[in-house]
Every structure is written in C-alpha cells, then in structure tokens.
C-alpha cells in the first residue's frame, strides 16, 4: 500500500516544502479511483487544502463527483482543458486528477507546474487503451512522476490478475465511454485470445465482403 512521504517534507506550519507527482494507473476496474479517493480522504484528515479535477468528456456517473465502480464518491470540478486546473487549484496543496488519459498532452506540463509550486499532485488514469496501447499523456506522466502505483483488477475470464481492458463490442475508436456492458478486465493471456478471435472474425468478414 502506498504510504505518503514523511512529514519532514513540510514546514513547521505543516505546509508542503516540496511538491511531487504520484501516478495511479491500471486497467478498468483495477481500483484507480478508489485509491485516488483513499489518498484524498487521508489528505483531508490531515487538514490539507485539496481539490479534485476530472475531464469534461467523462460525465458517466456525476457532473461534480468522481465515483468509483463500487460507488465511493468525492466532490470534484469538471474541466474542459488541463490548463484550466492551474487557476482553479491555486489554493490547494493537494491536487487530485481522475481519468487523466482523456486530457490533452499538456496535462504533463500542468502537473509539473503544480508540483513545482510545492503541491502534491495525484493523477489516476488508464495506462492502456482497449488495444493494449499506451493511452494519452499517461506514459509521459509516469516518466515525470516521483511515485507510480500500478493497480490490478481480476480477469473476468479466468480469475488471474488483470492489466488489460478488453472491449466487448466491435468499434475501433479509442474513445468509447462505458462500463461492464462494454469492457471486461482481462489478464494478458485472455486479452490476447480475445484480440486474436476479433482479428480472425474481422478477416473472415472482409473475405466474405470480397466475394
Ligand atoms: N474484474 C474486476 N476486478 C476487480 N474489481 C472489480 C472488477 N469488476 C468490478 N470491480 C469493482 O470495481 C471496484 C474498483 O472500482 P474503481 O476504483 O472505480 O476502478 P477503476 O477506477 O480502476 O476503474 C472494485 O473495488 C470492485 O468492487
Ligand atoms: C479501455 C478504454 C476505456 N475507455 C473508457 C471507458 C470508461 O468510460 C473509461 C475508463 O474508466 P475507468 O474509471 O478506468 O473504469 O474510459 C475508452 O474510452 N477507451 C478505451 O480504450
Ligand atoms: Zn485471464
């Protein structure tokens, strides 16, 4: 379990002397939002001013809350662009960002600026998309972060540890919001099997159309 850096990182009034970036990544259903909520609740207990942000693109559950799959929730601000966070987080010492994969690449620079202003920045997001490719600004964020935590789900096919989000419907757009009706957490083996089957049926369909 992630333990916050020691309190010597604070001045005598308890304010942060140095900032840093924490990344929480993993597949869908792996507990990213739960872990973000857990860390933010502990910051609140320590009476540190905090603010949570999420991208306008993702309003699946609530406009002004981050909500985990098991219905844990915390107040958040929805922003259209990562750069909006800079002004809105001015009075926060701890900044949480959920669904980071949906922001533009400038999220990396925004997080670095916030950390350079001595803020603790906690970013949660999908490390890979439905094809198993790195998602948005997540890889770059992992590179500049002081702390990276990868959380895991349970494979819905075989019960092993899952790192992949398998899409159950046949669309190739990277952006497709949804839950269990559209995605399944899968281990490497079951993810690969699903992808092979998909390519196989796609090729069969193309062959059929050529006739
Ligand atoms: N396949 C699964 N593996 C693990 N947890 C799952 C799975 N399916 C549903 N869950 C639920 O999802 C919760 C995690 O939700 P959440 O924090 O929102 O995940 P994430 O933000 O990574 O999508 C778990 O505590 C569990 O209740
Ligand atoms: C893999 C993948 C996911 N999405 C969408 C589906 C969900 O709306 C979110 C992820 O939510 P979670 O909190 O991590 O469960 O992202 C997508 O648009 N494209 C993808 O490839
Ligand atoms: Zn599996």
TrEMBL record:
Catalytic activity: thymidine + ATP = dTMP + ADP + H(+)
Primary location recorded for the protein, binned into one broad class: cytoplasm
Residue numbers binding Zn(2+): 155, 158, 187, 190
Gene Ontology cellular-component terms listed: cytosol
Residues at the catalytic site: 99
Protein name: Thymidine kinase
Matches recorded under Gene3D superfamilies: 3.30.60.20, P-loop containing nucleotide triphosphate hydrolases (3.40.50.300)
Quaternary structure note: Homotetramer.
Record-listed ATP binding positions: 26-33, 98-101
EC number(s) stated in the UniProt entry for this protein: 2.7.1.21
Sites where the protein binds substrate: 183
Family the entry assigns: Belongs to the thymidine kinase family.
Protein keywords: ATP-binding, Cytoplasm, DNA synthesis, Kinase, Metal-binding, Nucleotide-binding, Transferase, Zinc
Biological processes, Gene Ontology terms: DNA biosynthetic process; thymidine metabolic process
Subcellular location: Cytoplasm
Highest taxon above the source species: Bacteria
Xref: HAMAP family: Thymidine_kinase (MF_00124)
GO molecular function: ATP binding; thymidine kinase activity; zinc ion binding
């Amino acid at each position: 379990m992630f333990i916050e850096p020691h309190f010597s990182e604070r001045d005598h009034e308890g304010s942060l002397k140095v900032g840093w970036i924490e990344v929480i990544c993993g597949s869908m259903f792996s507990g990213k939002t739960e872990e973000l909520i857990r860390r933010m609740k502990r910051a609140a207990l320590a009476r540190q001013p905090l603010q949570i942000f999420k991208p306008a693109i993702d309003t699946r559950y609530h406009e002004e809350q981050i909500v985990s799959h098991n219905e844990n929730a915390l107040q958040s601000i929805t922003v259209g662009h990562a750069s909006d966070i800079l002004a809105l987080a001015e009075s926060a010492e701890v900044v949480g960002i959920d669904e980071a994969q949906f922001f533009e690449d400038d999220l990396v620079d925004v997080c670095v600026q916030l950390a350079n202003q001595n803020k603790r920045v906690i970013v949660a997001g999908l490390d890979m998309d439905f094809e198993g490719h790195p998602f948005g600004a997540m890889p770059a964020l992992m590179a500049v972060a002081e702390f990276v935590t990868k959380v895991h789900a349970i494979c819905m096919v075989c019960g092993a540890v899952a790192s992949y989000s398998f899409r159950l419907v046949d669309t190739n757009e990277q952006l497709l919001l949804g839950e269990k009706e559209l995605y399944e957490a899968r281990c490497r083996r079951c993810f690969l099997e699903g992808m092979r089957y998909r390519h196989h049926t796609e090729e069969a369909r193309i062959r059929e159309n050529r006739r």
